[in-house]
Design brief:
This protein is 0% helix and 47% strand. The chain is mainly beta.
Length: 126
């Protein structure tokens, strides 16, 4: 079955950087749209970034645009999230997600993704 496993060191000071990885198995990785979401206590799960199947195109919400960068390696079956200029409000559990079908638009809602990782905690101290 499809499995997604996130990894990355989770504690950093404000203004610092952090890189997350998400290794996949059990799927044809290059045919999946990949995304990152985050979930902070008391808030809804929030879209953070998405990347198309080839890795050429990416999409971000205004809250992270210019600070976060998503990328993928279709040989290693892995998607990455580079986070720079981190703020305390970036503190959350971060999830990677995979979607099987590309319909010509970006997908920013959790229900639009088919598979999820278990999540990894990111804490940004002030």
């Amino acid at each position: 079955q499809v499995q997604l496993v996130e990894s990355g060191v989770g504690l950093v000071q404000a203004g610092g950087s952090l890189s997350l990885s998400c290794a996949t198995s059990g799927c044809t990785f290059s045919s999946y749209v990949m995304g990152w979401f985050r979930h902070a206590p008391g808030k809804e799960r929030e879209f953070v970034a998405a990347i198309n199947r080839s890795g050429v195109s990416t999409y971000y919400p205004d809250s992270v645009k210019g600070r976060f960068a998503i990328s993928r390696d279709n040989v290693k079956n892995t998607v990455y999230l580079q986070m720079n200029s981190l703020k305390p409000e970036d503190t959350a559990v971060y999830y990677c997600a995979a979607r099987e079908r590309w319909g010509g638009r970006w997908y920013t809602m959790p229900r639009e993704y088919d598979y999820w990782g278990q999540g990894t905690q990111v804490t940004v101290s002030s």
